[in-house]
Design a protein that fits this description.
By secondary structure, the chain is of the alpha+beta class. Helix content is about 55%, strand content about 15%. It has 2 domains: about 130 residues, no CATH class; about 130 residues. It has an 8-stranded mixed sheet, sandwiched between helices. Helix 4 runs antiparallel to helix 5, helix 4 packs parallel to helix 6 and helix 4 packs parallel to helix 7.
Length: about 280
């Protein structure tokens, strides 16, 4: 979870002028999945865009909430009171999350002296000559993905720590300390997390808005690189593969233990039949 950096706060407090404007972005990942159709019926402001993937709500000029079906929401230039209201609506319709929310903050600045097509991407802000709805959507999408990556990185780290504890105990004592049900629950959690990562985070292709606009395409790729979307995604994917290998070993050991128990039961039943036959004769 990241806080607004001092540089963002100080720049956001700069007095707006005709030549300079600052727009605050706040993002949160609040769920593994959001039901956008249900949300669309609950919002009280105009819906600017809607699809199975994205719901964009408009509050005023250059003021939007971009809500994504994989559980992230980005507020672009939205008053705090409205953010609180919409976060409450999201929490009413969301599917339960395994860990707490992850949040992020970003800044968009407009400076007319840069020229209408000039865009500068930094680690904490984007500075441009002219703001447009298409730029808002691209920036919001990438900040949302970054926040979701934070969430899944924490989730995978927690599962990786649990897997490490199991393997360490197995190394020291030669057996599982957890019961069979606990092990199966852990395997289920790992598989569920893997599926969520694959279905929710592999969304880093260029959006349609960039296909016919070199300017939008450059903003998309520059910000994607600055936020290290691809690098962080590969790191999460690598960690999930480590966990997958661990649960494969655990599953094999549990299966082997069960097979040994079944063999022992069969041997005992045969022995019982032999002894019973001996006494009958």
């Amino acid at each position: 979870m990241s806080e607004i950096s001092p540089s963002i706060s100080s720049q956001a407090n700069e007095v707006p002028t005709p030549d300079y404007q600052a727009y605050r972005i706040t993002a949160a990942h609040v769920a593994e999945r959001l039901k956008l159709k249900e949300l669309r019926e609950k919002v009280s402001h105009p819906v600017e865009d809607f699809s199975n993937y994205e719901l964009v709500v408009k509050f005023a000029e250059n003021s939007y909430a971009c809500i994504y079906n994989y559980g992230s929401v980005v507020f672009f230039n939205v008053p705090d009171a409205i953010q609180v209201k919409y976060l409450a609506i999201l929490r009413e319709t969301k599917e339960g999350s395994k860990i707490g929310d992850t949040t992020d903050a970003y800044l968009v600045e407009t400076k007319q002296d840069l020229g209408p097509t000039a865009n500068q991407v930094f680690f904490d802000r984007v500075t441009m000559g002219k703001l447009s709805y298409q730029k808002i959507k691209i920036i919001s999408m990438l900040v949302a993905e970054s926040t979701a990556l934070d969430y899944y990185d924490i989730l995978i780290e927690n599962l990786l720590e649990h897997a490490t504890l199991i393997t360490k105990r197995l190394e020291r004592q030669g057996k599982f300390i957890e019961g069979k049900e606990d092990l199966l629950k852990f395997v289920g959690m790992c598989l569920s997390a893997k599926q969520e990562i694959i279905s929710n985070l592999y969304i880093v292709d260029s959006p349609e808005e960039t296909w016919d606009s070199p300017e939008l395409d450059k903003i998309f790729h520059d910000l994607k690189t600055m936020l290290e979307i691809d690098v962080r995604y590969r790191a999460v994917e690598y960690k999930s593969k480590i966990i997958q290998e661990s649960i494969g070993v655990i599953t094999d050991l549990v299966k082997t233990k069960r097979e040994v128990m079944l063999e022992m039961i069969i041997i005992l039943l045969i022995a019982f039949e032999v002894v019973a036959g001996f006494f009958r004769h």
